Input
Amino acid sequence: MELRKFVGPEFVYGEKALDLVGRYALNFCAQRPLIVTDPGVVQAGWVKQVCDALVAVSLPPVVFDGVSCNPRDSEIAAGVERYRAENCDVIIAVGGDSPIVPLHGMTFSFPGAAPPP
Output
């Protein structure tokens, strides 16, 4: 029998959790994070807070806010294209189910959890 281990994504939540995203991204050796979110979360100001935390640790973020409240496969594909086009190496979901669902779909596009060359 072959042994396999899958590590689920880390969920960080609570008061001031958005301010810690830079530290967590560095823990994953991020250099170019992709933030997956929806327009409502952008409008609420949470994405700006996450971007500020990433910039504070010298990580230039890329924002993909092209997901709807019921994400479609075309939105996931657009997120994968953006990830590749911007040479991202980490995906950060900001918000609720809308960005988390496509994040899971996007990660399946990269076997071994690494972006293609």
